[in-house]
Amino acid sequence: PIITCFKNEKVMKNKPVHYVLFAVMCCIQLYIPLSMVLQQNDTLNNGVPYKFLTAPVDPNDIFRGKYIYLQFSGNEVVVDSTKVWHYDQEVFVSLEKDEKGFAKIKTVYTDQPAVQGDFMKAKILSIFPDQHKITLQFPFKRYYMEEFDAPVAESVYAEAAIDTSSFTYALVMVKNGKTTLKDVFIDNIPVKTIVSQKSKEK
Q1: In whole angstroms, how far apart are CA 86 and each of 83, 96, 124, 151?
Q2: What is the per-residue pLDDT across 11-60, written as a single tens digit (0 to 9) for each?
Q3: pTM (two decimals)
Q4: How many CB atoms lie within 10 A of CB 80?
Q5: Alpha carbon of 51 to those of 44, 90, 180: distances in Å?
C-alpha cells in the first residue's frame, strides 16, 4: 500500500508537467500556420506590386483541380558561369520593371542580397552550360479558384493562353523576399471578373 501511494503521488506530480508540455505543443502547432497567414497578409497589403508575364502552356495542363497552373516568360537569366548553380537550388532574385511596367529579373544571387531593392526567392528549373543560361521556377505558380468557377476559369484561361493577340500576367506582391500572388489578368482584366461575367451570361 505504501509503494502504491508513492507511485500515485509521483504520477500526480508529473501530470501538471504533461499538461504544460501538451499546451506548449498545441501553441507551436497553432503559431506556425498563423504566422504564415499573417506574413502572407502583410506581403499582400504592404508589398510592392510586380506584374509577371505568363507564358503559353499546354491547354490540357493548365487547370489542375481548383487552381490554374501558371508558367512565366522572362524566367531565363544569362550568368557568367553555370558551375555555381544546380538543379532545384534555392536562389535570390533581385527585381526591376521594364519600360512597359512588367517585372524583370535584374540579378540572381546564391545568398540573400545585401543591396537595396526588391527581391524574391526562386528555384533553378534548368541549366544550359553551353549558353551560360539558367531558367527559374517562380514560387507563385498556382492561382486558386472557387470550385464553382473552376470550369469557366479553365476555358477562359485556356483560350487566352493560346491566343497570340492576348497577354496574361500575374500580379504579385513582393516584400523582404516574400511573395504573394494577388491576381491573374487577361488583357488587364482580372480572371475572376471575366469568370463572373461569363457566369452571368449563361
Answers
A1: 8, 24, 7, 38
A2: 455 556 666 666 667 666 655 555 555 566 677 788 899 999 988 765 55
A3: 0.74
A4: 7
A5: 14, 22, 12
Query: How far is it, in rounded angstroms, from Cα 131 to Cα 129?
Result: 5
Sequence-distant contacts of 34-43: CB under 8 A, at least 24 apart: 39/178, 40/178, 40/180, 42/175, 43/173, 43/174, 43/175, 43/176, 43/178, 43/179, 43/180
Q: Which helix (H) or strand (E) holds 49?
A: strand 48-53
Q: Report pLDDT digits (tens) over 116-175.
A: 789 999 999 999 999 999 999 999 988 887 766 666 776 777 777 677 777 889 999 999
Give the number of other Cβ atoms within 10 Å of residue 30's Cβ. 10
